[in-house]
Amino acid sequence: MSTLYTLGSGTTLNVPDQSLPRPQSSATSTRYLAAHSPSPNPSTSSLSATEYDVTSPSPSPTSAKFQFQDRLVTWDGPSDPANPKNWSTKQKWATSLIVSGFAFLSPLCSSITAPALPDIGTDLSIPDGAQRQLVLSIFLLAYAIGPFVLSPCSEVWGRVPVLRFGNMVFIVFTCLCGVSTSQGQITAFRFLAGLGGSASVGMGSGVLTDCWRSEERGKGVAIYQLAGVLGPALGPIMGGYITQSASWRWCFYTIVLLNIAVQIVAAFFLRETYAPRLLLVKARAVRASTNNPMWRTEGETAEPDRTFGGMLRITLSRPWVMLGTQPIIQVLALYQAFNFGTLYLLISGFPALFEIRYGMPRGDATLNYLSLAIGSLIGVAICAPAMDWTYAAMKRRYGIPEDQPGLPEFRMPLMVPASLVTPCAIFLYGWSADAKLHYLVPDIGAALFAGSSIICYQCISAYISDAYSLHSASASAACAFMRSVVACMFPLFVPALFGNLGYGIGGSIVASIAIVLGIPAPWIIWFYGSRLRGQSRFSHKEDEETRVEMVQKA
């Protein structure tokens, strides 16, 4: 038997239940719909509902008549509008664009200081070389640490409160960067600003996973990932022109003003998306309304330690456990980290290449960063529709019904050609710069790298979201850690790599690493991903065996 419970707001709960006695009617009542089913599993049976009235207030749960097992609080059917996956397309896109706005501004701040480093170093007496580059890269080191705290917290308090808190921290410390008077101050404030800014980077993909279904997720992920790549590409252009006409401090003030604008929009239009948190709020409302503590969500039933400390301990340790125990995350995070690090290697190396080697004025030299932006746009224009089309085509190819999700491995095909283009693009960039060919040639190499890199980036992010849907924020945090550590370290190698070895040999070393890491990665996941996910306690296994059997038979 199951019970449909109607709250004061008009929403109903469909829950399994033992038989309830029919109480006496009353003028003041809380409405129940007791549904009778011959099957012990109400989710697989056809229910015929009979309406009962139960006097209010509800009888005590300790009463002998009302002692029963925990009742499951879940969505009111597959079309429940409270479920973020059933939101209107307009609401989903509003959520995606707001999160993408945050994801754009935080990386924008990470790279906006690249052309301003000489002025910052002069004003704050920071020596040239690694110490000055640290002002740029320390922000990315915070990206490695922040998601390990903020992303798991979003699985306790929900996405929106943590996202807003992180962005407030980002706004405050970015503003303080603008008033810094010493090397220690700007370094510390940049690190703390990066901690706050990492909120959108670490949990953005989790928000998209919450509200987009697998077969429609490609476009939403593409816009979000594009924002994360466009930010670092456009930041130096903005910083170059700001420092030409105003103080370098306005680089930070501009970011603050833009972020405040997005924060205001988010206050009105950004809604909570994390399903376990929404169901927990719903369960608390039911418990308060019925005076019955036995109403629980699946998460409350599955996790015995529901104290605040216990929940926080589990969620904070989860990203580290996933990074240490999940080979899928290790392989994909390593390649994603290499691409992200190489992007910042190019960003930090552009001033020396185009201002010194090609003799361009600072403002004109920063325009070369457009090559990264254009390449990213082309990559998204290819990947966004192609990933959804490929995913649907693979489902048809292997006979998976339209109403069932496909395998996460169906995200990998686009990554194969992209992983081949990446080393070729780096070779082109390095040897054309070494030969001092027309400046457009290394720009083309940079654009090709940015396009192929973002395709791989989106395929990896979509795969991880599909494979670890319930813990996607923690899985993304694990990837963000490796990605950000490498991105922090790579710019420090620029003087030694290109200055001592030259652009040709230095670029060849980077391209060789891309061949070793990138080309085998999609094939490893394609052939062994399903087996590895089957052994994981974090992977989503609902209907997994059935879908794998369909693929194997096909």
From TrEMBL:
Residues 14-31, 53-64 have a biased composition (Polar residues). One of its GO terms (molecular function) is transmembrane transporter activity. It is found in: Membrane. The chain crosses the membrane at residues 93-114, 134-150, 162-182, 188-209, 221-241, 247-270, 328-347, 367-391, 412-432, 444-465, 477-498, 504-528. Residues 95-533 form the Major facilitator superfamily (MFS) profile domain. One of its GO terms (cellular component) is membrane. Its main location: membrane. It is a multi-pass membrane protein. Residues 1-13 have a biased composition (Low complexity). Residues 1-64 are annotated as: Disordered. Pfam families: MFS_1. Keywords: Membrane, Transmembrane, Transmembrane helix. This is Major facilitator superfamily transporter. It comes from Schizothecium vesticola.
